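Q: What does the assembled structure look like for these inputs?
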Amino acid sequence: MSENSPDKLAIREVRLGATRAEGGTREVSYVIGGDRGLPFCGNDAGRRLVALEICDDPAIWPPVVRNYVGDLVNNPEDWAQAAERRYGADLVRLNFTSTKKRGFNAFADIASTTERVLEATTRPLIIEGSNDPQVDSEVFRRCGEAGEGERLLLGTAEADRYRSVAAAALAYGHLVIAQSPIDVNLAKQLNILLRETGVPEDRIVIDPYTGALGYGFEYSYSVMERIRLAAIAGDDDLAMPMISAPTDTLSIREVREAAPEEQDAMAVAWEFYTAYSAFVAGASVVCVRHPLTVERLKKVLEA
Amino acid sequence: MNEIETDLLDAAIERGRIRLDARLQTLSGKPEYPDTAYALPVTYALTGIAVRDAEGAREAYRQSGNNLLVACECLMAAEGAVEPPYTGFIPDTVLRQLGYTLVDGSVIGLGLIVGRPESPDAAAAICREMQEKYLLTFLAGGVVEALSGAGVRLGLEYRLVPLGPESARGIHFADILARIAMMFGGVKPGDASALLVYAAERAKAFVIVFPGLTDEEIAFVDSLRALGMPILTVDGGYRGGEWIPVASGEAVQKGMDLRGIRVTITAIPIPMACSPAFEGKSIRKEEMYVEFGGGRTPAFELLRTRPREEVEDGKVTVIGPEVDDVPAGSALPLAILVDVAGERMKPDYEPVLERRIHTFINYGEGSWHVAQRDLIWVRLSKDAVAKGVRIRDIGTLLAHKLKMEFPDHIEAIQVTLVTDRAKVEELLPQAREIYKRRDERIAGMKDDDVEVFYSCTLCQTFAPNHVCIITPERPALCGAITWLDARIAHEITPSGANQPVEKGEVIEALRGEFAGVNRFVKKTSHGETERVSLYSIIDYPMTACGCFECIAAIVPEVNGVLIVNRDYRGETPLGMTFSTLAGTIGGGAQTPGFLGIAKSYILSERFLQAEGGIARVVWMPTSLREELGDRLRERLAAAGIPEMYEKIADEVTAPTIEDLIAFLERVEHPALAMKPLI
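A:
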């Protein structure tokens, strides 16, 4: 008991997803965090998870992924199911890209897509709602309500628009991704704001934000390191596990302009090295978009 | 207030209380609500008792100390449901949505309207105003019929919820609050004080009362005050007690003011993204379309408190040429004048809010800002200007961001941007007069008088490990934040960049090293800096971000210290310009022998106390010496060396190190005879 007593943990434990016994319908739930020191220094307690990102409107999704997964892009639940069963992802991150369309108002679809994807998967789910103040309130309410009890990880809260996400987490028992623009103090401040809104500290996951490797990742790396060091030094407001989604990686020039036969390999290489670096910097969850990256990351993590 | 009327209301409350009390004692049947996990919510929250029967109701009432809200709730729960369109008790699932909109900010406050209005139109106008102001309104009593009769649409989707035909149904309003507190506020059933705190501070609600209440209803409404709700009476119905009479046209505004409810804005109408993500990005000369200040033109910023009637909220005025009147690469003069008004705004807060101008302009994707006061340097990028960004947009950005950031203090804000040179030059002396007055406010305070210093980590976006420690006798190195300002900033934003720092045990008094300060700096610099002397340039000097007004640097050859200010563009006797020196000492590193400082620190008794103070100063540019002028003379006189003023060399008397040595020997500068610096 003393070894595992929470007060000795540098990073809080956060449970993603809920099994039937825990009030949800997932076959497993994951505990992340619980670390005592820096990553890969022999103190790792929490697990590292690889999420495959999918979306409900592929119009703005990277062409290299669309080509690879084919028809799946038009069907979020099949895509989600393939992510788990075929590609081996620990969990799925569902992006509601449809909300980016001008004048979006298909709120009922948000609820039904959430339900269908939950139905199609057995593992915890990350949901990325809208990022437009005009529709945030309704979007987060719908996905929060549709996933009540499932301990979804909902994104993304930012300093000037965190209320809808926080409200959905509070009302329907979910978790929050708190994203700050590569800045340790803003990360801390957002966590304080969330706490003041009433979100319990063990329901927050920090996203320090990142670019691709070679395109600004080094800033994120050092901020992640500083967040982790601050937590180890006893800063409670930063003692949350981290998530990293290097989503820009597939839109960089090297990937876009690669020869057609090299596209997949190039995309996977960039995603893999960026995402793996994020693990090294201390991320508990990384989110990638190319299915082959999942496999490669899982293999290295198991080694 | 009329005493007889006061008596009347108090008497009615008392009669109502006795009636309710008696009815509860004879209550029979089953008090319960459907579709909730919170039993009778007010009772449950106050006492922790999940009431199931009449006996339980009486027990809970007793345990609550005869709280009338408990009595009303138990009595209502025993009465059963109401017919549509009335909602009666609201089930948990719907309530969760209501609570969501409240946390989410799409509803910013709650109102309960009871009684029967004499004029349905007045009631309709109140409801319309509530809707426009993002308030969620509950209705109970004759007001519902009156509104329907006047053609007002009711229902949750219209944010007007008809609870029931009798005003007593208003008790559901209290059970909604209680459940929101338990669902969203982490209030534990039975923790009455937590409920009251939540209701008073978080769930911002008020009550509007029309005439026509029974004594029991009067007693019930009065008991809502315990939940922090002001009771506003309109139509001259009730006077007395703690109830507040208002004209019906002013009821909503009054309720909002009393509860501190403010409508907030989310999107800023400018053709440029605005986010902290852009804060660290600078605009290089080649990318710049137009710049202001930075030594090329006169420029300053000033935020002032004004009477409410002199501030037209949201107004932005540009006086002088706009960016499209000048070619790319131009420099224009600039005065940023921000006028704010608000009941809770104090002139003391001005410098704190003014300092945020720096942060907010840097939030713009194509706008950039450094330094402060009359030293500012602002740029707009070519990209931004091509997208349609104008100087006016900087004003719009500032007006919105300041109001969003300080909603409790700023009720109205207007921004004037002056790019007309003559006008800027005319205004500049007035601004300097105000800066000087602000500096004087803190002049009498001593470090020994306080137990707490303040930190500033505003610049950690640029210099991630730098921490300023601000004391009464040593302002932040940017010169823009004094100890008083930092204390006020902490008051306004407790989670912000200015935190209290306990001095703790004195480690070394002369050098100004304190155990508490060291602990704080170590933590906040993320372990980078372990010790800091507040009054020394050599042993563990304070780190610097990059915003310093001046740099102090030791000149080993003459056993003294030179000071160079940001606006001096020439070389110092060290063979380096201000900007070269700045490049070596910024970024949060501890650099013994160099110090980033505010101008006013030069005049402090604590200035380089460890090294012998002001007598060490051997050189400063004439512009700086003239600016400090009489204040410097006074300081030197107080230090017992009035003749020193003439002994400080400058760029004319000593442009090089050789000239400096010769000059100092000729005037017999005291530094030459002091203890060796190194």
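Residues 447-673 of chain B form a domain with the Bifunctional carbon monoxide dehydrogenase/acetyl-coa synthase(codh/acs), Chain M, domain 5 fold (CATH 3.40.1470.10).
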